[in-house]
Design goal:
Elements: E1 2-8, E2 11-16, E3 26-35, H1 38-46, E4 66-67, E5 71-79, E6 91-94, E7 97-98, H2 104-107, E8 118-119, E9 132-136, E10 140-142, H3 149-152, H4 155-167, E11 175-179, H5 183-195, E12 199-203, H6 207-215, E13 219-221, H7 228-236, E14 240-245, H8 250-258, E15 260-268, H9 281-284, E16 289-292, H10 300-308, H11 314-317, E17 318-323, H12 327-337, E18 343-347
């Protein structure tokens, strides 16, 4: 079968590999749609980051080249021995976290903070940029028959956004700023709406993404046209309750700090390829809090329920749909060259 594998920086190949066989406790899926994540793009341009490049991953036992893709939906086509919760024909999505189950974080239920954390489609085990894949039953969530497979492919990135808002100090009626209106930033806007934020500001350069943010109800600020921090402080009467850094661009982190109110909170949602210099006194003298999040835990069911109510709509967020054969040039390269793209979905 066809599968997109990471061989190195700027070296993704659509390889012919053996179709996986189902195993006990797992299900075999026909992949329907898979989204290209910002993490995938980081691996393409600057990896390996999460991909095990020089040594096998301690959980999967695999190292590059590995099959990519972790934002995907599919249909169950075969179930392994011992599987009781799923059946052939089920529409599903995958929560793509590998965890050891034994470290201190896992024992405390914080499986996304596992000391040997890995992501399906980044750490080995298979991935969504393939025709078929085999996944352990506990990683699979059913979606309603009324939900499209395209919508299902957004459950994973929406989980990142919902988890970021849940882990923050945001309260109903608060004011928030989202720095970066890419796919995750736009989903954070949606999650903030669901959480009852009174004012949501989006800082973004791209015309297409600014329009998307505005359509979702955010107050858009273009950093090329104004001093972002001064604008936010003026509009909010002293700064936002919570700011969310979703760009991974080092100078933006300081803006997110400065735009938070006295005693406010800064949530780092993005992955940084380079070190970011900050001014600690701007944290100390304002008693601000900085918090980071990785992935998610225990939110997939909530995301699916919110989607049933119309949140995180694929119709509003997906800007391009392509075939697996075209994933490199029309997918990864397009995201680097075409700043009007938001979310690209790949049909397996």
């Amino acid at each position: 079968m066809k599968a997109l594998r990471w061989h190195g920086v700027k070296d993704l190949r659509l390889d012919e590999i053996e179709e996986p066989a189902v195993r006990p406790g797992a299900v075999k899926l026909k992949v329907k749609w898979c989204g290209i994540c910002g993490s995938d793009l980081h691996e393409y341009t600057a990896g390996p980051i999460f991909i095990p490049g020089e040594a096998p991953h301690p959980i999967t036992g695999e190292q590059a080249p590995i099959v990519m893709g972790h934002e995907f939906s599919g249909q169950v086509v075969e179930v392994g021995e011992g599987v009781t919760r799923l059946k052939v024909g089920d529409k599903v999505v995958v929560e793509p976290i590998f965890n050891c189950g034994e470290c201190a974080a896992c024992r405390a239920g914080n499986y996304n903070l596992c000391s040997t954390l890995g992501f399906y489609g980044l750490a080995g085990g298979g991935g969504g940029f393939s025709e078929y894949t085999v996944v352990d039953e506990h990683m699979v969530h059913k979606i309603p028959d009324t939900m499209s497979y395209e919508q299902g492919a957004l459950v994973e990135p929406a989980a990142v956004a919902l988890y970021a808002v849940r882990q923050s100090a945001l309260n109903v009626g608060d004011k928030a700023v989202v720095f970066g209106a890419g796919p995750i930033g736009l989903l954070v806007i949606e999650a903030l709406k669901a959480a009852g934020a009174a004012e949501i500001y989006a800082v973004e350069l791209s015309a297409e993404r600014k329009q998307k943010a505005a359509e979702l109800g955010a107050i858009v600020i273009d950093p090329s046209q104004t001093n972002v921090v001064e604008e936010i402080v003026a509009r909010t009467g002293g700064g936002a309750d919570v700011t969310y850094e979703v760009t991974g661009v080092p100078p933006v982190l300081q803006q997110a700090i400065d735009a938070a109110k006295i005693g406010g909170e800064v949530m780092i949602v993005s992955i940084f390829e380079k070190e970011a210099a900050i001014k600690p006194n701007q944290i100390v003298t304002k008693e601000r809090t900085i918090k980071g999040i990785i992935g998610y835990r225990n939110v997939f069911p909530s995301v699916i329920r919110l989607m049933e109510k119309g949140f995180f709509s694929a119709d509003k967020l997906v800007t391009k749909r392509i075939r697996l054969d075209d994933v490199v040039e029309q997918g990864f390269e397009a995201l680097l060259k075409e700043k009007n793209q938001v979310k690209i979905l790949v049909e397996a």
